[in-house]
Design brief:
This protein is α/β, with parallel strands linked by helices and about 325 residues long. The chain is built from ten helices and 15 strands. Helices cover about 30% and strands about 30% of the residues.
């Protein structure tokens, strides 16, 4: 039932691996090591599949980065397949180092590898350090660190935790072009009971709109007329045909709030499809905007009583 706390606490956590990724660092901040077992998975789809198959109780995966934007693998993985819900969000400050085998200097670096997002966030510094060198994309930052330790590459752009995990030295620290970057991770579990409202919550969903005039305006209007602020909205192709898109969005409030529940019910009516992705506590350091009096739960309750009275002949 929406608004009720989960009946079981996850004890088996999958995350985007291998060991030493930013995802592992984020999981450390969210769940104490004594609270469960961690299982690295080679990709976001693999981490989500572990939850869907029952091999894990929950998975921590990256959703968006303040510099590079959203992670398509996560957005698509939540939109497709058996339903999963977000139960928690985790924000992690992203700090990159250039990790090398001990004893390697800048002149000895002839190859650099990392995840494409990490390479994009450090492209400027890498070009300054290694003019003419083309960095190599790999599946993860930690995987790049492991490959350096194995002698496959000379250097990796990775998290400090990865350099430590694989016995590498941080040749250059604070490598990012834009210091202060943050990645938002989400903890996802099988659909079921939801975290209880806290009064400062987010709700996430995916809505598919038809190829017709005003379809997106209809979607947005359902939130606007109820005084609900959106904190994120992005379009993704549905892979059906050109002109049909899904919109991944976050809004303020919990589905247990009447205004949010009513908005989602309205979307179910006007959209081709709606997938609820969870209601959970907001942890980005911001507070939801004050709810207008006409959008507060008591106002909805009074309006429902008034309508019921009319329908009953009063």
């Amino acid at each position: 039932m929406p608004g009720m706390p989960s009946s079981t606490t996850p004890t088996r956590f999958a995350y985007l691996g291998p060991e030493g990724t930013f995802a592992e660092a984020a999981l450390r901040t969210a769940v104490a090591s004594s609270e469960g077992t961690r299982y690295p998975r080679p990709s976001v789809p693999a981490a989500l599949a572990a939850v869907r198959s029952g091999d894990a109780d929950a998975a921590l995966v990256p959703l968006e980065n303040s510099v590079e934007g959203s992670v398509p693998a996560t957005m698509d993985g939540l939109a497709d397949g058996p339903a999963l819900v977000i139960t928690r969000e985790v924000f992690l400050d992203v700090s990159f180092v250039l990790a090398v085998r001990p004893g390697t200097d800048l002149a000895g670096v002839r190859s650099v590898a990392s995840h494409p997002h990490a390479l994009a966030q450090t492209a400027g510094r890498l070009a300054e350090l290694f003019p003419g060198l083309a960095p190599l994309p790999v599946a993860s930052t930690a995987g790049a660190a492991a490959a350096v330790a194995a002698g496959e590459f000379d250097a990796a752009v990775c998290a400090p935790i990865a350099a430590e995990r694989y016995g590498l030295a941080a040749l250059v620290e604070d490598l990012a072009d834009n210091p202060g970057a943050v990645t938002r991770f989400v903890l996802v579990e099988p659909a079921g009971a939801l975290p209880a409202p806290t009064g400062n919550d987010k709700t996430s969903l995916v809505a598919v709109v038809g190829d017709r005039t005003g379809a997106l305006l209809e979607l947005l209007s359902e939130f606007a007329v109820r005084g609900i602020s959106l904190t994120r909205i992005e379009s993704r192709p549905t892979r059906q045909r050109l002109g049909v898109y899904s919109f991944s969005l976050d809004c303020e409030g919990h589905i247990a709030d009447r205004r949010v529940g009513e908005a989602l019910a309205a979307l179910h009516r006007v959209c081709d499809d709606v997938r609820f992705l969870g209601s959970y506590a907001r942890t980005d350091g911001r507070d939801n905007k004050p709810v207008p009096g006409t959008a507060a739960d008591p106002a909805f309750a009074e309006a429902e009583e008034w309508l019921a009275g009319i329908r009953g002949g009063d």
